Amino acid sequence: MARRRSSTVSTPTPRLAADALLRDGTANSRVGRFGWMRLRGVRARNLDGLDLDLPRGCWVAITGPTGAGKTTLARDVLHAEGRRRYIETFPAASRRAMERLERPDADTLEGIPTARFLSATDAISSGRRTSLARVVELRHALATLFSLEGVVVCPDCRVGIRPRSATDLAHLLDQLPEGTRYAIGFPVEVGPNVNRRVALDTLRAEGYTRVVPWDRAKTQFNDRVRTFEDEDLLKQTCREWWVIVDRLIRGNENPARRLDSLSTALARGGGLCRIVSDALPNGAIDARNDWRCPSCARMFLEPTPPLFFETNPLGACPVCRGVGRLDDQGRPDPHGSAVCGTCQGLRLRSESLAVRLEDANLLEWEALTVEQMTERLMRPVTNVAASSGESPRTTSARRRALAILTTLDQLGLGHLPLDRPCRDLARGEATRAILAGAIASGLSGLLWVLDEPSTGLHPCDIRRLSEALGRTRDQGQSLVVVDHDPDLIRAADWVIELGPGSGSEGGRVVFQGTPDQLAQADTPTGRLIANPSATPWAVASQPPTLSNSPPDSARFSRARKSSRPRFERPPDRPWLRLTGARGRNLRGIDISIPLGGLTLVTGVSGAGKRTLVLDVLAWAVAEAIRIQKGPSADANPRPRAHESVGFEAIEGCEHLEGLEVIASGPPIRSPRSCPAGVLGIAGELRRVFAATPLAKQRGYPAAFFGIGSTGGRCSTCKGLGVVTLDLAFLPDVSATCPDCGGKRFRPEILDVTYQNRSIADILDLTIREGFALFKNKPKIQARLRAPLELGLDHLRLGQPLTSLSDGEARRLRLAGFLATSPAAVERSSRGPKSLFLVEEPIWGLHRSEWSRVLDRLRSLPALGHTLVATSSRPELEGWADWVIELGPGAGDRGGRVIFQGPPRVSSTPSRHNADHTPSLPQS
Ligand SMILES: [Zn+2]
Ligand SMILES: [Zn+2]
Ligand SMILES: [Zn+2]
């Protein structure tokens, strides 16, 4: 074992840290070279007077147990200050709003660059209108390409529309052979409703002298040229006259006069000029200088970049204004019940989609995967009109698009279609997409704060993530990465570990220095870095194995060799069998899940885990249960995630009575949601306060102690404690409510106390403090037990859910379920049970905390429930009874079952998992 320091390194000054680096001979030349961010006396949540220095232009990893203050430091201090400085650079109008924007509470904050905050939640919750292409700002590059090189094609006539100026036409005429006779003119309509004599007089007054009765069938026109005196013109022989402006001979013409004639013809002809010559194909060409279809006369729009954004009035569908849906009255409404009939929900106006590049419109381009689009853009854009290759602007737009696509591909997102909505991306995919956008932005000198970017990533994907982070840092960015992954910590330039515990036990710096120094430090992360293959979860809870016969006996016999203790599963226990599962990259796969067991669905990011479990399986089981319970059971069937999602058959649902999906859920509905609500104690707290003597005396009902209804809550901030500042061009920024000072209630409501605490004080308690305070209220206390077991001690009862990290939010949902339906969880071991589908249960957890959560989840199968968890962490395999691995790759290269059977901990593991499965202790 490596030498360990006898004591932890506590808050060394940068100078000391740098000295230590030089002494160790492992000096990272980056650290300190670009200066330091100096934080002194930082006070926020559990950070109490923290002093800290972070090297600029470096990759700084922040780690530590849940609730130690990592996100507070990264988001509420570093990012908040960086954003404040960014807004400060804007003109006076927005600075007025700035004055209300609080500075993080600290003695001094120096050297913090302007900041961007990156969290997958932001991308996913930004709603249905954000697609992958938009997150990485690929649309901008495509819009430029389309505006420069796109061809407008009338969708009805399939005719290309290319406006030609007089100069363009002059160049065209130069191509005619020397000595060719040609004439420039314009058409005039002379249908039955036109008074031909008046028309002739008008033309004569304008100085024209010759006209040709136009008949498309005849190409020889010279013998039919008429002077205005010709009485034949007044007879109804044709519907159109062609008025001659000028007659010229190629080679003898005066260029200025010719240009003038062309311009006159275009102007007088309403944008249409007709050039006639025997040397031309069909004897004549019609050329327009506007965007009208020559065949059906429909007017199109000049392709300019704004035309390709539904967010711009120019590009938006005029009926739904670019939102794609309409409400009952036919008004634009993103949540409306009807798809807009004008744009079919595509949100762009039809003129935008008439622009085609290589015979595909913008949306068809965006439906390509990253790989397919890269391939198409690798070839220079073929523009028929341009004789001399690609213009520099085209080349630059193409290069820019390729740079974004290459970054996406390097981050393992090559399989994704660019129009995939962000809400449908797996968490890891979304994080890496945002990172790709950050890299592609080309900005430098910024501070990027990343919240748990490795969540949901398979170890192979983490290597690529790490490389991308390294490149971003090399571009001159400062990176602050909150993450637990040992590989990401080792690759950083500088590590800050907060701890030692969570909540009031945390908020201190237990280590700062280089990763090499961390490996020598006796801290939880230091031990993990020094010995990464250590068992990730407590050995005490022996992962049981199934003993009855699985569907694939060959694989089972291989696993039988495992010497681990077996969980004696009653032999009559049935299986849940799903056949023909399809959707996205799944093309009809069959899986079996042991009922009453713990199944792990694993595989690389993009292999199809989420689609299989959260889309197909969840939908199939929900439908089956709904049918079993009869039509009255549930009026709102669980919606199918996607049109293509489906299956052939599902068996075994008769043994299930409920389905619980614990996944990165829909965006939090109300900014008023808080842990107290999720855990089902908010109503109980309101009743406790309403029952106090003072509340009774003043006649306050229970509702006055909640922020969901009016009466007790502060009317300025409507119970939020903060007011939102609208800065128009920036994401909304919130500031403490000036009336209640963040207390959220009217002052008279706060007079009412329980155990000397007002409702505001109670909502400010952590779950652990609440658990102690309510020892006389068993109903409340019981509901605070599950979050404690899941490591959520530090959450405050009234903290908005929007402030939670992804991992915290997911575990809180699980805790909420365990707390509010204990009866369902702990029903006797016989009878129907629930199926729990849990997405990535250990996201956002420090490795030292895995066992706590995994043990708690293990208790569900112990009670007879069935648990199916997805995870890209192969280390979890030994925790499960049954493993389904999807792969072998991502996207089209994935979606197949490459392994199904009991854990392969000691038998032949698959290629991907082989490198990363730590050896488990055998007992
Ligand atoms: Zn047309
Ligand atoms: Zn529309
Ligand atoms: Zn207020």
Automatic annotation (TrEMBL):
| A Pfam cross-reference name | UvrA_inter
Q: Which residues form the UvrA interaction domain?
A: 170-276
Q: Which InterPro entries match?
A: P-loop_NTPase, UvrA_inter
Q: What is its main location?
A: cytoplasm
Cell location: Cytoplasm
Q: Name one GO cellular component term.
A: cytoplasm
| Keywords assigned | ATP-binding, Cytoplasm, DNA damage, DNA excision, DNA repair, DNA-binding, Excision nuclease, Nucleotide-binding, Repeat
Any one GO MF term held by the record is: DNA binding
For bias kind Polar residues, which ranges apply? 542-551
Comp. bias intervals (Basic and acidic residues): 565-575
Domain of life of the source: Bacteria
A Gene Ontology biological process noted in the UniProt record is:
DNA repair
Q: Where is this region: Disordered?
A: 536-575, 893-923
As for family, the record states:
Belongs to the ABC transporter superfamily. UvrA family.
- Name the UniProt record assigns to this protein: UvrABC system protein A
Q: Which organism is it from?
A: Isosphaera pallida (strain ATCC 43644 / DSM 9630 / IS1B)
